Amino acid sequence: MKLLEDRIRKDGIIREGNVLKVDSFINHQMDIALFREMAREWKRLFAGKPINKVLTIEASGIGIAAVVASELNVPVVFAKKSMSINLDYDNYETQIQSFTHKKIYNVIVSKKFLTPEDHLLIVDDFLANGCALMGLLELAAEAGATVEGIGIGIEKGFQAGGELVRSKGVQLESLAIIESMDSTTGEIVFRPQPHQS
Amino acid sequence: MKLLEDRIRKDGIIREGNVLKVDSFINHQMDIALFREMAREWKRLFAGKPINKVLTIEASGIGIAAVVASELNVPVVFAKKSMSINLDYDNYETQIQSFTHKKIYNVIVSKKFLTPEDHLLIVDDFLANGCALMGLLELAAEAGATVEGIGIGIEKGFQAGGELVRSKGVQLESLAIIESMDSTTGEIVFRPQPHQS
């Protein structure tokens, strides 16, 4: 999606070690007008799919998911990291590793909110190694829900996650796929995606 | 707001110890259509205020904040719990106590995203003892930002947070204020708010 690629070029900050900071518009400050355009693009890309729920994971996925769900007129369920004493113990549960935070999280979704009747659009801001996404796919599979598609903001195309998920045959639409980036020159190369706007 | 009060009566679950579970529509599964109506009510209640940003705290505040920000056409900034290695160390920081999770969190906002130019609407799903909200007010004060108002989904009117915040002279609009609830009968008494819809 050209709008997102242009914004990453303009406001993204590349750090050594293939770190891309987009905290001024995606995952700390959130540009909701941009999210709305992203939501409309996913609506177009997943048109005709019987999506009845958006699934994401806390925390930075929630904002994008809420705007997408508003566009699709469906509810959101967000998977929670770690156990809250306010939750029922009747949950689907899996573990995911966060490289950013160097931790392993328990990730849970209440069995009440993921069922075999659900046709999910999974949404998240980033896809790199795919750990979070594989965790969400596992929760959906445990619940017997159908994953109609996956919408990702920014995919690091040089890491394994995208390939891993595409090999499962799920329609994955990352609105910007970074092939390479250079922290010294600031140059970013995006993968061409002619079917996107 | 009658719509929210009715929904709490219908789908809220009262547990012993004054615990109210609203995870089927507010803070695990999120009813975005309801959030949109809440956002419109806040837009009406804070009409005329020069709000240029919504401030909230991860995680369950983010969904409501995103929908409110979409309605007001402004960005969201969410305060983060605990330090991520992807963040700059140039942050406003405070501590808040979570009674639900029995922990003390560091809460941070990048100095880039809260400034003296900001006129904030602070949004969160719940207000009980007010710890999270006092933390957000402190971050806003550190930044020299103006708090134009506070929008809360559900306030536990029998806990101290609401009184504490109102005594500071900030316009606080909780869309449902629970005066009392009874886990044996399921009865909930809401505080009358004739100025709300």
UniProtKB/TrEMBL annotation, chains A, B:
Reaction(s) the record says it catalyses: XMP + diphosphate = xanthine + 5-phospho-alpha-D-ribose 1-diphosphate
Which UniProt keyword terms apply here? Cytoplasm, Glycosyltransferase, Purine salvage, Transferase
Q: Which GO terms describe its molecular function?
A: xanthine phosphoribosyltransferase activity
Record-listed 5-phospho-alpha-D-ribose 1-diphosphate binding positions:
A128, N129, G130, C131, A132
Q: Where in the cell is it found?
A: Cytoplasm
Q: Which GO terms describe its biological process?
A: purine ribonucleoside salvage; xanthine metabolic process; XMP salvage
Q: Does the keyword Transferase apply?
A: yes
What InterPro entries has UniProt attached to this entry?
Answer: PRTase-like (IPR029057), PRTase_dom (IPR000836), Pur/Pyrimidine_PRTase (IPR050118), Xanthine_PRibTrfase (IPR010079)
Record-annotated residues binding xanthine? L20, N27, K156
One GO cellular-component annotation of the UniProt record comes to: cytoplasm
Q: Which Gene3D superfamilies match?
A: 3.40.50.2020
Instruction: State whether keyword NAD applies.
Output: no
| Superkingdom of source | Bacteria
What EC number(s) does this enzyme carry?
Answer: 2.4.2.22
Q: Which SUPFAM superfamilies match?
A: PRTase-like
Domain Phosphoribosyltransferase: residue ranges? 34-147
Pathway(s): Purine metabolism; XMP biosynthesis via salvage pathway; XMP from xanthine: step 1/1
Q: What does this protein do?
A: Converts the preformed base xanthine, a product of nucleic acid breakdown, to xanthosine 5'-monophosphate (XMP), so it can be reused for RNA or DNA synthesis.
Assembly and interaction partners: Homodimer.
Family listed: Belongs to the purine/pyrimidine phosphoribosyltransferase family. Xpt subfamily.
Task: Please identify the protein, giving its name as recorded.
Answer: Xanthine phosphoribosyltransferase
Query: What is this protein's gene name?
Result: xpt
